[in-house]
Amino acid sequence: MQSTDKNVSQSITQVIAASSLGTLIEWYDFYIFGSLAVIIGQQLFPSDAGASALINTLAIFAAGFIVRPFGALVFGRLGDLIGRKYTFLLTLVLMGGSTFLIGLIPSYSSIGYAAPILVLILRLVQGLALGGEYGGAATYVAEHAPVGKRGFFTSWIQTTATLGLFLSLGVIVLTKNMLGAEAFADWGWRIPFLVSILLVGVSIYIRMKMHESPVFTKLKAEGKVSTNPLKESFQKKANFKMVLLALFGATMGQGVIWYTGQFYAQSFLENTCKLDFNESRYILLWAILFATPFFVVFGSWSDKVGRKWIMLMGMLLGVICYRPIYQYFIDATNVKEFQKTELKSASAPVVERTLVKDTKDSLVTTTTLKTLNNGMTFKEAKIVTIPDAPATFPEEQTVIKDVTLSGPTYIIIIALVFFQVLLVTMVYGPIAAFLVELFPTKIRYTSMSLPYHIGNGVFGGLVPFIATLVASFSGSTPLSGLWYPIGIAALSFVIGAVYIDNKGDENVAD
């Protein structure tokens, strides 16, 4: 008996490792784009585009999320017709190839608006591929896992999205530090895209050695495979009701918590709080490192107490805590106000004079590195536009950038980002097991993939874009963008609390 248990354990371990590696690489491919949005925007759009370049780049990033539900339909149907293994092998090839090609796209200065159009097309392919990847990996692992441990085993798949983000941030920071900021912004940003092809090759090799899910194999041998998974998933009233419940009562709220805690947090620290490029990424790296084990903790715990309330409490805590957390971010990094009483020293100013593109006006930038008594540093750039016409008054603006934090503040902000990622582990750790258990085997891939990718790809994936856009409106505050994830999470909490059952396992083995 012990030998049998050992063999089962080894088999499941191999399944998790093979599924997780491929999924991790796909998430890595997906997230390097979001992590480099500011630099990519400078490459894809005119140099004088200003803030619109970032918003347009985030829109291209968001497009990849919007098409994920279509990928879920296409690849979910294939997965229920021909099997889990070959379907999510195909999604890996599409994702890896698209990422590699993004690294080769010429900049706006070389091919004009063809650059953002080509990147948009590749982002759409990425989104379609990712739409088919997650459902396959989660279903594959769940159908190998023993009853009573499904939350524990599928939670390992859940870590891959965060670990993919962790890996992307690590590669980006390492590349930037090796090349220097100037070379990285010019051409080095392409390296994280290009090296992904090596990781994809390794993952394809491993996945080729995998066997089909035993549950699906049995279903196929018995001739019970669905002939029309889309029709059975969405035209049967009882199943379609579960699809809607999964979307509005779980994945919608889970999606906004995920992208607020791990994507919008970094974007807010870098773009609103003006933290240094490396500083914002190190904060997220530390937070992810400490929080990632909790995916498995909450996934395993959900096997004992149920999935429902763990996920819903993660949503509720986000609703309650987001605004105080982000207000602290603003207050703790307000160096413009701090320097009135806390300025310790200032470096000699560095003056740079350039011509404004397509005009005879001059742009004079005077940059000073300042240090506060609490140890924080920042660069203050005074930018003066000197018009060619003598009668016109010069225009002046002051820009704060490259803020680095003092020890205590740095620790507190890491802790607050860690808390947000902890909420991510609460809502995301049990979600795969929850979704798998809602639907019967023959239409599971299709049925679970659609609500997952609408909830994550549309509601969640749009968080950085919508929140940044709302905060840019006239009369808004830096916190205005948070009303979007707070509102969605609150609505999902109410629906989930009223309608979701805390049971599981009903449909898994059929």
UniProtKB/TrEMBL annotation:
Entry's transmembrane regions: 27-45, 51-74, 86-105, 111-131, 152-175, 187-206, 242-261, 281-302, 309-329, 410-436, 457-476, 482-500
Subcellular locations according to the entry: Cell membrane
A single GO molecular function term of this UniProt record: transmembrane transporter activity
Xref: Pfam families: Sugar_tr (PF00083)
Keywords: Cell membrane, Membrane, Transmembrane, Transmembrane helix, Transport
Cellular component aspect of the GO annotation: plasma membrane
Gene3D superfamilies: MFS general substrate transporter like domains (1.20.1250.20)
Membrane topology: Multi-pass membrane protein
Keyword hit for Cell membrane: yes
Annotated ranges, domain Major facilitator superfamily (MFS) profile: 15-504
PANTHER family recorded: MAJOR FACILITATOR SUPERFAMILY TRANSPORTER, SHIKIMATE TRANSPORTER
UniProt protein name: Predicted arabinose efflux permease, MFS family
Record organism: Dyadobacter psychrophilus
